[in-house]
Amino acid sequence: MIIAIDGPAASGKGTLGKRLAAHYGLRHLDTGLLYRGVAHVLLSAGHPADDRVRAAAAAAALDPGRLDEDALKTQAAGEGASIVSAFPEVRAALLDVQRRFAAAPPGAVLDGRDIGTVICPDADVKIFVTASAEERARRRFLEFRARGLAVTEAEVLDDIRRRDARDTGRAVAPLRPAADARLLDTTALDVEASVAAAIALVEAARR
Ligand SMILES: Nc1ncnc2c1ncn2[C@@H]1O[C@H](COP(=O)(O)OP(=O)(O)O)[C@@H](O)[C@H]1O
Ligand SMILES: Nc1ccn([C@@H]2O[C@H](COP(=O)(O)OP(=O)(O)O)[C@@H](O)[C@H]2O)c(=O)n1
C-alpha cells in the first residue's frame, strides 16, 4: 500500500506519516527533508538559496541516506527549501529517489507537497492535511522552543505564510490537493485524534 500525505507547512504531515507507517507496517519518507538538504548544502557553503545552478547540482549529488534531520529542521533550511524547490531541475533530480522509495515492498507513506499529484498519482490513499495558519504557527513555535531555537511565534507565522504562498504559487508541482485526495483539517484535533481520523480515512479508502 502507498499512502500519500500532502499539505501546507507544519500541518502535521510528518507526525501522521510516522504514525500511519507504524500502524500499517510501511516505511516512511519525509520528502521535505530532501529539499531542505539541498538548501542546506548551499546555505552552509555561504551561497544564496536562489542560486539555480548550484541548487540543481546539489540536488543531483544529494545522498538521501545521509540527511541530518536535526540540522535540517530549522527555519532557515525551510525557507531555503521553499526557494530551491521551485526550480524544475531540482524537482526532476529528486523524482526518482522518491518513486523508488514508494515502489519498494511492502509499500510506504510519503509526505510532502506533490506526493498525490506528481510523485505517486496512483497512491492507494491520498490525504491532504490542513490546519489554520495560526494553529500551525503555534505548534511549530512550541516545537522550536522545545529544541531551544530562538524565534518568536509571529516570525514563525510569517515564515509559514510566505512558504505557503511560494509553494501554492509556483509553476511546477504547486501545493494543491489531488482531485481524489481526502481532506483532513486538524485545527481542532490533537495528535491522537488526528491519527485516529487519518486511520479512518485510510480504512474508508480501502473499502
Ligand atoms: N494534531 C496536532 N495537534 C497538536 N500538535 C500537533 C498536531 N500534529 C502535529 N503536531 C505538532 O506540530 C508540529 C508540526 O507537525 P509536523 O508533523 O512536523 O508537521 P509537518 O510535517 O506538516 O511540518 C510538531 O511539533 C508536531 O508534534
Ligand atoms: N514534496 C515536497 C516537499 C517539500 N517541498 C518544499 O520543501 C519545503 C520544506 O518542506 P517540509 O515538508 O520540510 O516543511 P514543513 O511542512 O515540515 O515545514 C516546503 O516549503 C516546500 O517548498 C516541496 O516542494 N515538495
TrEMBL record:
It is found in: Cytoplasm. The keyword Protein transport does not apply. InterPro entries: Cytidylate_kin, Cytidylate_kinase_dom, P-loop_NTPase. Gene3D superfamilies: P-loop containing nucleotide triphosphate hydrolases (3.40.50.300). The keyword Nucleotide-binding applies. Residues 3-202 form the Cytidylate kinase domain. Its EC number is 2.7.4.25. ATP binds at G7, P8, A9, A10, S11, G12, K13, G14, T15. Keywords: ATP-binding, Cytoplasm, Kinase, Nucleotide-binding, Transferase. GO terms for molecular function: ATP binding; CMP kinase activity; dCMP kinase activity. This is Cytidylate kinase.
